[in-house]
Amino acid sequence: MVKHNNVIPSSHFRKHWQNYVIKTWFNQPARKTRRRTARQKKAMKIFPRPTTGCLRPIVHEQTLKYNMEVRAGRRFTLEELKSTGIPKKLAPTIGISVDHRRKNCYFEGLQAKLVVFLRRANHIKAGDSPAEEIANATQLQGPYLPIVREKPTVELVTVTDELKSFKAYDKLRVESMNTLKGITFFFNQDQKTVSFWPSFFEKNLELLRVELRRSRKSRTTQIEFHHF
C-alpha cells in the first residue's frame, strides 16, 4: 500500500499497443493506382486546359544564397498584365494567374501563344478561336514554357603583371567613396571655380568655412551633388 494520498500503482494493459507504434505501408501500391486514376479524371475534366495549372512567371529565389537561381513564381502582377494588354479579369479565364499584391517589374515570359476557347458553345464572342482550331487542340500533359537554368561558365585568363599589381581592396574603397560621398562644392567667385573633394576636406576645412560664410551673405553659392 502506498503512503499518503498517492496513486495506487497498477498495470494498464489490454490497450492494443501494436496499433499505435507500428505503421505499415501495405496500401502503397493501391494508393499509387488511386492517385493516377485521380489525375486522369482531373485531366479529362479540365480538357483542353493544361494539367499543370495556370501560367506562372519566372522569379528569382529568396535569400543571398539562392537569389541567382530562378524558379516558377505564383502569379503575375497587374503591371505585367497591363504592359501586355491583357485585362486583369480576362487573364484568369485564359489560364494566366493574377496577383494584385505583388509589385515588381518583370515583363518577360508573357508572349505565349494562347488559344481562347468558347465558354458556351452557342455564344461566340469576338476573339474566340475557330471551330477547326478547337477541334485540333491537344492537352499539354507536362510543364509548358519550362524554366531553363543556365550553368555559369568559368573563363580562364593568363595572370599578367597588371593583374598582380591590382589592389582590389583599394579599388573598392575608392569606388565606395565616389558613390556615397562624391560631393563637389562649386563657388563662383571672381569668375573662378574652386572645387573641394572629400579627400581634401580635412586639409582645406578652414578655407571651406570662410567661403561658406561669404556665400551666405552674397547668396551666390551653388552646391551640386555628383554621383560617380
Brief descriptors of the model:
2 domains, 31% helix, ribosomal protein, 228 residues, two-stranded antiparallel ribbon, Ribosomal_eL13, 60S ribosomal protein L13
Summary of the model, kept short:
Keywords: Ribonucleoprotein, Ribosomal protein. This is 60S ribosomal protein L13. Helices cover 31% and strands 10% of the residues.
Walk me through the structure.
One of its GO terms (molecular function) is RNA binding. One of its GO terms (biological process) is translation. With 228 residues, this protein is of the alpha+beta class. The chain is built from 8 helices and 5 strands, in the order H-H-E-H-E-H-H-H-H-E-E-H-E. It folds into 2 domains: 28-135, no CATH class; 161-225, no CATH class. It is 31% helix and 10% strand. The strands form 2 sheets. The chain has a 3-stranded antiparallel beta sheet, covered by helices on one side. A two-stranded antiparallel sheet has the order 1-2. Strand 3 and strand 4 form a beta hairpin. It is flat and about 90 Å long. The N and C termini lie far apart (89 Å). Mean pLDDT is 72; it is low at 109-116, 185-197 and 220-228.
End-to-end Cα distance? 89 Å
Strand order of the largest sheet: 4-3-5
Q: What is the chain-wise order of helices and strands? A: HHEHEHHHHEEHE
- Low-confidence segments, given as residue ranges, are 109-116, 185-197, 220-228
Keywords: Ribonucleoprotein, Ribosomal protein
Protein name: 60S ribosomal protein L13
GO cellular component, one term: cytosolic large ribosomal subunit
Organism: Malus baccata (Siberian crab apple)
